[in-house]
């Protein structure tokens, strides 16, 4: 059965759709792409990136069909139509862009060469031009160029013209086409299922592992064996995915990227083996250092494991000689400061591209600390830095370390708190002032404040339940409270004194954290002025989910930035679907007010602009936050009425795990 191979331009394909000469068999799913995905496709065409091929079916049969796009012709065409089997989302998107569809208003920034869906902000910004105005049938490039040059005198007119011509040229882009003929409908249905079953994008770690497996047979078995070895030692988070990232970093000297697999494929056997030995040797030195010198006996409490990679490279490649005490302290100081500053919460691979070379420099520890900006600046934790932080904050991890270091014991078994407890002795965090006594008077963010959380066993937690500190503190020795940095003043034990309790405990925790950090600060770091305050001081983001069985659930967002409060109501199901899409490698967006706001995937992080912040987190972190809200949802009848306003100014990056 013959397969015809040919090529057609986008302009030709759009014309054929308009004339009903390209149609969809009924087995095709509905059009599902979001504006963000459409913008990415147009950008790929503009930059000359490959965007795949198209698969068609030509037949004398008359299968049930529908138009490629909702507004495309459905009348019988003048010639035998082609039925589209693979490429529907791309071709429908291009048809919409080229016909000025209201849901495909893609715009182009002539200065930054960025693409996105039209918004209120882009309409006001003279640097943005609608793609349709450049590629549409009535487009006048000279007119568009004249207008843009006049409105943007700071830009070079010739460069604007070159970029507009490059954009206009996408209409001439030719797709490779394969046309199946002679196949019966039953076989076409089977082909369709097989072709479309694997349409999800692979993550960079998946691509890297696939490349390594093909390039270096047996590597998966090495990774799995190494992961099992560290899982048995309490470091189960050093799994195959993490080890793949670490190996790639050791081989390439930077983080993963879209072209990492190409560079990995070109690596020699010697380079791959040397990288693997670096990872193994680095872990053999680093994990005992964390366990014995810092008290990080298990990996599950660590907010980020990427922070380990530069240290793995440093220790894996250093000469086989004793590690002097000051260097050991410097390594742990980097680990602690990079962790509490969320160094790898956003541009993970870009920052690894800075830190791995630093780890290979002549003075690696100094170079790493210089990347953090702490050379000459002691890191001081203040009470303000802890305000509004909760279980998702890296300061929660630090609070565990300082409490453990203070020889705190469980309030039931009287054993030292440990992340390795099992069964009834498994470590939990407990609300010192129980939620039940605070709900009517305080916000969720205040109730879940880090300063209201203590590390105790499941057994002790069950014993305390919803009793007030005014009750159960009487059963505890004051030293047991002090070991957890809990203020012992009796006047702080009632719900009415809760805010004063938070302030008092923050002070104790901040002082303990600063002392703890100072112990690991190398003596050769010069003492100077205290570093600037964290730019998230005084900032918070609070989520509240209002759920219903008969209407769509809503996610209420309250963002506070110093003295400013910004609110929005999101469609909770849309947010969850968007997060699931990006987790599978698909672009997506969320409706905020009257605008579609894209969820951007930057390396391994999902970014969503929300008023004064850009919320950042891995897909797993986003899913964890949404699941948390689902567990604490309220009736939709209690949902407030909110009018979203446009935020003016630059947003700050805010880790999604820090939300309440």
From TrEMBL:
Alphabetized Pfam families for the sequence: GmrSD_N (PF03235)
Residue span(s) of domain GmrSD restriction endonucleases N-terminal: 11-212
InterPro entries (alphabetical): GmrSD_N
PANTHER family: DUF262 DOMAIN-CONTAINING PROTEIN, VNG6097C
The protein's name in its UniProt record: GmrSD restriction endonucleases N-terminal domain-containing protein
The organism of origin for this protein: Carbonactinospora thermoautotrophica
Organism taxonomic ancestry: Bacteria, Bacillati, Actinomycetota, Actinomycetes, Kitasatosporales
């Amino acid at each position: 059965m013959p397969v015809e191979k040919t090529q057609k331009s986008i302009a030709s394909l759009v014309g054929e759709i308009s004339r009903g000469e390209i149609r969809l068999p009924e087995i095709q799913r509905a059009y599902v792409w979001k504006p963000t995905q459409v913008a990415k496709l147009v950008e790929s065409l503009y930059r000359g990136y490959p965007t795949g091929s198209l698969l068609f079916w030509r037949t004398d049969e008359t299968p049930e069909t529908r138009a490629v796009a909702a507004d495309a012709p459905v009348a019988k065409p003048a010639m035998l139509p082609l039925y589209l089997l693979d490429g529907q989302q791309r071709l429908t998107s291009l048809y919409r862009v080229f016909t000025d569809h209201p849901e495909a208003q893609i715009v182009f920034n002539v200065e930054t060469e960025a693409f996105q869906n039209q918004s209120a902000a882009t309409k006001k910004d003279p640097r943005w031009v609608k793609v349709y105005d450049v590629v549409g049938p009535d487009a006048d490039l000279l007119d568009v160029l004249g207008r843009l040059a006049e409105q943007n005198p700071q830009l070079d007119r010739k460069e604007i013209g070159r970029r507009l011509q490059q954009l206009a040229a996408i209409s001439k882009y030719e797709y490779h086409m394969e046309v199946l003929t002679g196949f019966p409908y039953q076989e076409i249905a089977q082909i369709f299922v097989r072709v479309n079953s694997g349409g999800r994008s692979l993550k960079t770690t998946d691509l890297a592992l696939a490349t390594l497996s093909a390039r270096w047979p047996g590597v998966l078995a090495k990774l799995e064996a190494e992961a099992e070895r560290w899982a048995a030692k309490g470091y189960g988070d050093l799994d195959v995915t993490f080890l793949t990232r670490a190996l790639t970093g050791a081989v390439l000297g930077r983080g993963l990227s879209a072209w990492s697999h190409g560079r990995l494929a070109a690596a020699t056997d010697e380079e791959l083996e040397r990288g693997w030995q670096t990872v193994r040797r680095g872990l053999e030195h680093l994990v005992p250092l964390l366990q014995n010198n810092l008290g990080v006996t298990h990996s599950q409490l660590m907010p980020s494991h990427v922070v380990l990679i530069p240290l793995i490279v440093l220790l894996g490649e250093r000469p086989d000689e004793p590690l002097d005490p000051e260097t050991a302290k410097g390594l742990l100081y980097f680990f602690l400061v990079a962790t509490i500053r969320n160094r790898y919460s956003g541009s993970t691979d870009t920052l690894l591209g800075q830190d791995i070379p630093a780890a290979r420099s002549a003075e690696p520890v100094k170079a790493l600390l210089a990347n953090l900006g702490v050379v000459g600046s002691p890191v001081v934790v203040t009470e303000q830095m802890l305000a509004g932080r909760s279980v998702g904050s890296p300061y929660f991890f630090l609070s565990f370390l300082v409490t453990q270091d203070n020889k705190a014991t469980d309030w039931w078994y009287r054993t030292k708190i440990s992340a390795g407890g099992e069964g009834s002795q498994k470590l939990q965090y407990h609300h010192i002032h129980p939620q039940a006594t605070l709900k009517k008077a305080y916000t969720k963010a205040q109730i879940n404040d880090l300063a209201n959380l203590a590390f105790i066993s499941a057994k002790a937690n069950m014993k305390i339940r919803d009793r007030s500190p005014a009750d159960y503190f009487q059963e505890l020795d004051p030293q047991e409270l002090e070991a957890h940095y809990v203020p012992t003043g009796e006047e702080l034990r009632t719900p009415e004194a809760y805010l004063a309790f938070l302030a008092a405990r923050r002070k104790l925790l901040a002082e303990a954290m600063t002392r703890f950090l100072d112990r690991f600060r190398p003596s050769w770091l010069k003492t100077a002025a205290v570093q600037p305050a964290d730019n998230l001081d005084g900032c918070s983001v609070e989520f509240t989910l209002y759920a219903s069985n008969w209407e769509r659930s809503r996610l209420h967002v309250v963002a506070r930035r110093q003295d400013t409060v910004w609110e929005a109501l999101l469609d909770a199901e849309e947010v969850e679907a968007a997060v699931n899409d990006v987790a599978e490698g698909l672009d997506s967006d969320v409706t905020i007010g009257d605008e579609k706001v894209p969820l951007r995937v930057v390396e391994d992080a999902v970014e969503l602009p929300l008023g004064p912040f850009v919320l950042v987190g891995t897909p797993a972190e986003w899913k964890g936050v949404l699941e948390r809200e689902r567990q604490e949802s309220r009736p939709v009848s209690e949902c407030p009425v909110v009018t979203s306003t446009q935020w003016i100014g630059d947003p700050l990056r805010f880790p999604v795990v820090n939300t309440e």
